[in-house]
Amino acid sequence: MADDHDFHSGESGASETYPAQCSSLRKNGHVLLKGRPCKIVEMSTSKTGKHGHAKVHMVGIDLFTQKKYEDICPSTHNMNVPIVNRKDFQLLDIVDGYLSLLEDDSSVRDDIKNPSNELGKEIADRFANEEQLLVTVLSAMGHECAISVKNCPK
């Protein structure tokens, strides 16, 4: 009997999140609130109630939209924590609103949009002044965006 399974098109199975007990989360850490990756900006824990669980109230700012989200979770329950990566790229060019970034392996990425906020204006202005720049890109759950810029080390 032959197996008709095609494993070539499957995903690797690498998760974009991992579980963590609510009481182990900390301010300035990351958590999934309403399905969005957020940075925790406020946390408070209530006293144990008559049903035995202390509750944790969390306020988070979406990493990509800057929208505020809130949630309350029993301290003993698990919450999902997004796997967040930061990486610096050398800026080569800005073409049609997209950053042209140099990878470590000398390949070029052209898929990161220049932000439409103060940071994007700063990147464009400094690039126009012919500064050598490093752009920090944050990635989580299949989304990526530029979050900061600094001068290349000499």
TrEMBL record:
Residues 83-150 form the Translation initiation factor 5A C-terminal domain. PANTHER family: TRANSLATION INITIATION FACTOR 5A FAMILY MEMBER (PTHR11673). Keywords: Elongation factor, Hypusine, Protein biosynthesis. Residues 1-20 are annotated as: Disordered. InterPro entries: IF5A-like (IPR001884), IF5A-like_N (IPR048670), IF5A_C (IPR020189), NA-bd_OB-fold (IPR012340), Rib_uL2_dom2 (IPR014722), Trans_elong_IF5A_hypusine_site (IPR019769), Translation_prot_SH3-like_sf (IPR008991). It comes from Saccoglossus kowalevskii (Acorn worm). The keyword Protein biosynthesis applies. This is Eukaryotic translation initiation factor 5A. eIF-5A seems to be the only eukaryotic protein to have a hypusine residue which is a post-translational modification of a lysine by the addition of a butylamino group. Belongs to the eIF-5A family. Coiled coil: none annotated. The keyword Protein biosynthesis applies. Pfam families: eIF-5a, IF5A-like_N. Translation factor that promotes translation elongation and termination, particularly upon ribosome stalling at specific amino acid sequence contexts. Binds between the exit (E) and peptidyl (P) site of the ribosome and promotes rescue of stalled ribosome: specifically required for efficient translation of polyproline-containing peptides as well as other motifs that stall the ribosome. Acts as ribosome quality control (RQC) cofactor by joining the RQC complex to facilitate peptidyl transfer during CAT tailing step.
